[in-house]
Amino acid sequence: MTETKELNWIITNDFDDGEIALEVRLEDWDYTAYIKWDGCCEIKNDSINVHICDVPQFIEVLQSLEEFRMNNIEGAE
User: Fold this and answer.
1) How far apart are CA 2 and CA 16, in angstroms?
2) Which of 14, 24, 44, 73 could form a disulfide with 9 if both were Cys (CB 3.0 to 4.6 A apart)?
């Protein structure tokens, strides 16, 4: 069984107005996310290729981003 590393999202930009509330990046990984005021998220990666072997890591990234946005956007569902 492999040990799961805790993922750490870092706020790189905090917006006071507009559609986007936070821009965050995943420490040590190549993911950036934009969390909107309504709680929706857009996640980006420099790579446009997705391989089946990357799916478990990507699921882990998405779960971590979901937890981060729920903890940082008031009223997010």
Assistant:
1) 40
2) 24
- Going across the sheet that includes 32-36, the strands are 9-14, 20-26, 32-36, 41-44
Domain-wise residue ranges, the chain: 9-72
Gap between the Cα atoms of 43 and 60, Å rounded: 13
Torsion angle in degrees (nearest 10) through CA of 54, 55, 59, 61 = 20
